């Protein structure tokens, strides 16, 4: 009897410890798309120094704007069809559900800063274009050229290559062979053009931050799609598409082929699923699956985190994306750590 | 026994007929927000003449752009802080899930036409601002002044009134007092195709460049031919944070009936913004439809237009707000 009691007690302790470990997920948490380590570090550091989750997300994304993460965020990257770099960003407060966003922002480098100003200094959610740039200047942001030698080179190489790839269809001259200007064709065959699944065309930093007190925030920043039609806005600055957060449910951020992904509101869907108790990995997977149903070859990934600090990610398996990397920092790791998930 | 048989047969016939009537919802269907009858008529007429659901939604919204429905659509309305009228529009194909949208469109009157061009002539979903206007001109749309005497008057009165109301923030939570009437439309045909669209000139006295819910897929409207469609109207800045059209369609996808789906979408926003101004219309794949609205001063009852094979003409419907 004595031995059985011992075994039983050991089993009980073992089970309880496992439950504790399973239930235990570390807060605070910072998680962002892609191996953008400095961004994660900047966000983590903001939290550690007493900043809010909004501060964390703003500083993290701003770090990528300054460092031009992978050429896909901030100035000097992704020139559009006319050679210009324009920026999109979003910031969301998971407590109040307030959102600030900018899209097609010209000549201002700190897009997420402007997004925060939209949230804090207007009643609006989204400001776009030239007017958004004027707003930014009025709010004290400095006007600067977003063009660099690098973006100029990308643009001139593209011109020399007959403007391939581009995002035109059903126009003439034939967009798969030629530069514009383009005029609409009046009749055409309905066919799906191959989308350009390209790891360098579609990056964005998307970030979620949660603190110990249950506050959550999310943010994104990008220079959008290289060679986009001028004025093109993708998923990043669109609430529910590029990111979504509700302190009562969790947060999610997406990256990839924004034109396609935004039609499925993946971040909003993932948060709704987590609201219903679905774990972050499964929520992320569902969001990816929904898009796959319609666009099986889409390029994209999503990160998810719930209110307890559990997190997950998912991505669509296509040439060029077998594995998706993301950064995590929480009170267990105490520093940004590179994580990855296999695409399906 | 004979009498009981008769009664039983009558009851059976009655029950079956009720079931048939309950189950029977008329397709094709056009439904749009607010009592914009001509828009509904234009859309219905497009369907009747063999047009697609996309054609229906485009013509319906375009009718409002031409007629400046209530001053809230098209040219000559809702001047921003600098006196300019800019337009937003969206069109969505429920079969392919393709979307075309424009926002902050300047000097082009037919915003939903440009939205359709974005969908048909690019791989993108949304084009904004000055660049969107250039795109439109390249696509053959004519540049015109969107300003009229009326919009100029609204603007100068506003300036004289110390620019009240405006959307600059001075307090933590500011009372939002404007009324907003952007139309949204859903069309379904007998073969199961569905489309949705919106068109608006946005919020009067908005900060220039402000984009609300109308051109944002999932916010202003959403449609999936396998589930249904929804379109929202009201305080776009607030509503777009809750993706009400997407949520309503997700609920209908799960079998929730349109009225309940609409109500849930409104409730979600109410939780955070109990005094928000807004309404939503919903329709599922069988042609059942519903609507819901948030009860606030100025909105006790929400009116919308419906045309289907039962009515054969646009009919004014309404729902009480809650």
From TrEMBL, chain A:
Pfam families listed in its UniProt record: Asparaginase_2
UniProt binding sites for substrate: 232-235, 255-258
EC number(s) reported in the record: 3.5.1.26
Active site: 204 (nucleophile)
Enzyme class at the top of the EC tree: hydrolase
GO MF, one annotated term: peptidase activity
Signal peptide: 1-25
Chain spans, region Disordered: 169-192
InterPro entries: Ntn_hydrolases_N, Peptidase_T2
Keywords: Autocatalytic cleavage, Hydrolase, Protease, Signal
Ranges in coiled-coil conformation: none
Swiss-Prot/TrEMBL GO biological process terms: proteolysis
Catalytic activity: N(4)-(beta-N-acetyl-D-glucosaminyl)-L-asparagine + H2O = N-acetyl-beta-D-glucosaminylamine + L-aspartate + H(+)
SUPFAM superfamilies with a match to the protein in the record: N-terminal nucleophile aminohydrolases (Ntn hydrolases)
Site for Cleavage, residues: 203-204
Any Gene Ontology CC annotation: lysosome
Family affiliation: Belongs to the Ntn-hydrolase family.
Function: Cleaves the GlcNAc-Asn bond which joins oligosaccharides to the peptide of asparagine-linked glycoproteins.
Protein name: N(4)-(Beta-N-acetylglucosaminyl)-L-asparaginase
UniProtKB/TrEMBL annotation, chain B:
UniProt KW keywords: Autocatalytic cleavage, Hydrolase, Protease, Signal
InterPro entries: Ntn_hydrolases_N, Peptidase_T2
Database matches in CDD domains: Glycosylasparaginase
The protein's enzyme class: hydrolase
Gene Ontology MF: a single term: peptidase activity
Catalysed reaction, written as an equation: N(4)-(beta-N-acetyl-D-glucosaminyl)-L-asparagine + H2O = N-acetyl-beta-D-glucosaminylamine + L-aspartate + H(+)
GO process annotations (BP): proteolysis
Family under the similarity heading: Belongs to the Ntn-hydrolase family.
GO CC, one annotated term: lysosome
The protein's name: N(4)-(Beta-N-acetylglucosaminyl)-L-asparaginase
Pfam families: Asparaginase_2
Signal peptide bounds: 1-25
């Amino acid at each position: 009897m004595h031995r059985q009691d011992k075994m039983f007690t050991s089993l009980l302790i073992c089970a309880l410890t496992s439950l504790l470990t399973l239930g235990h997920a570390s807060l605070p948490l910072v998680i962002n798309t892609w191996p953008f380590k400095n961004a994660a570090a900047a966000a983590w550091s903001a939290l550690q120094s007493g900043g809010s989750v909004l501060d964390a997300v703003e500083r993290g994304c701003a770090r990528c704007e300054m460092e031009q993460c992978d050429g896909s965020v901030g100035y000097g990257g992704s020139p559009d069809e006319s050679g210009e770099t324009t920026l999109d960003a979003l910031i969301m407060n998971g407590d109040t559900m307030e959102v600030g966003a900018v899209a097609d922002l010209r000549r201002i480098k700190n897009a997420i800063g402007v997004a925060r100003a939209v949230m804090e200094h207007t009643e609006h959610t989204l400001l776009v274009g030239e007017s958004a740039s004027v707003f930014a200047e009025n709010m004290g942001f400095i006007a600067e050229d977003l063009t660099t030698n690098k973006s100029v080179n990308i643009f001139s190489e593209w011109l020399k290559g007959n403007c391939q790839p581009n995002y035109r269809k059903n126009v003439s001259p034939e967009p798969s062979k030629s530069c514009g200007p383009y005029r609409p064709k009046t009749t055409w065959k309905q066919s799906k053009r191959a989308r350009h699944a390209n790891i360098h065309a579609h990056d964005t930093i998307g970030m979620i931050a949660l603190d110990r007190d249950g506050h959550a925030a999310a943010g994104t920043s990008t220079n959008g799609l290289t060679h986009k039609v001028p004025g093109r806005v993708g998923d990043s600055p669109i609430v529910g598409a590029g990111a979504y957060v509700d302190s009562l449910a969790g947060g999610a951020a997406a990256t990839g082929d924004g034109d396609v992904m935004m039609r499925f509101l993946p971040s909003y869907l993932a948060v709704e699923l987590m609201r219903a108790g679905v774990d972050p990995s499964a929520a992320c997977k569902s969001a990816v699956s929904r898009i796959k149903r319609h666009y099986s070859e889409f390029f994209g990934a999503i990160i998810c985190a719930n209110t307890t600090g559990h997190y997950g990610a998912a991505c669509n398996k296509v040439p060029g994306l077998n594995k998706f990397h993301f950064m995590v920092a929480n009170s267990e790791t105490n520093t940004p750590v590179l994580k990855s998930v296999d695409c399906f």
